[in-house]
Amino acid sequence: MGDNQTREEDKLPLPWQRIQGAIWLLGLALIAWQDWWWPGILVLVAISGLTQAGIQLYLNRQQEQRQSVDRGAQLERERAEWLPDVCPKCGGPLSVATVKWTSPTTADCPYCKANLKRPDRA
Ligand SMILES: [Zn+2]
Fold first, then answer.
1. Ligand 1 centroid, distance to 119 Cα (angstroms)
2. Model pTM greater than 0.85?
3. Three-class SS of residue 30?
4. What pLDDT does residue 38 have?
5. Cα-to-centroid distance, 78 and ligand 1 (Å)
6. Helix, strand or coil for residue 116?
7. How far is the CA of 75 from the centre of ligand 1 (A)?
8. Is the pLDDT of residue 2 over 50?
């Protein structure tokens, strides 16, 4: 599923590229203003590297979070698909949120504790 391995580690999304560009411009302006080309340019390169790494870390974490949310939502959809509206044993109303999940494909009725299983698909 959406797991394409086109990794562009060193390329940031456009808004972040603009921020990086702004950092460079500001840094260069400062260096020119202070006439501090050496070693000012090294400091600027270091700062740019640090912000790049920070942005990358931040973006990676965001992506991981999004993926885990996606996984959770998918699991919930799969569960909702087979879970009956009412318990076949006691007739109590069931929902993904109220039953007690014992595994991705089994759950316990919250009223009579009957074990509900995902029917095997032919
Ligand atoms: Zn029940």
1. 17
2. no
3. helix
4. 92
5. 20
6. strand
7. 22
8. no
Q: What's the pLDDT band for 119 if we cut at 50, 70, 90?
A: confident
Residue 3 and residue 27 in contact, taking contact as beta carbons nearer than 8 Å: no
Mean per-residue pLDDT for 57-74? 94
Which tokens belong to 25? 């411009």
Q: How far apart are CA 100 and CA 95, in angstroms?
A: 10
Q: How confident is the model at residue 7 (pLDDT cuts 50, 70, 90)?
A: low
Beta bridge partners of 103: 106
The torsion angles phi and psi of 77, rounded to 5 degrees, stand at -60, -45
44 Cβ neighbours under 8 A, 6+ residues apart: 24, 27, 28, 31
Strand order in the sheet with 100-103: 100-103, 106-108, 115-117
ω into 39 cis (within 30 of 0): yes
The predicted structure's pLDDT at residue 23: 95
Q: How far is the CA of 112 from the centre of ligand 1 (A)?
A: 4
* Cα of 73 from ligand 1 centre, angstroms: 25
Check pLDDT > 80 for residue 3.
no
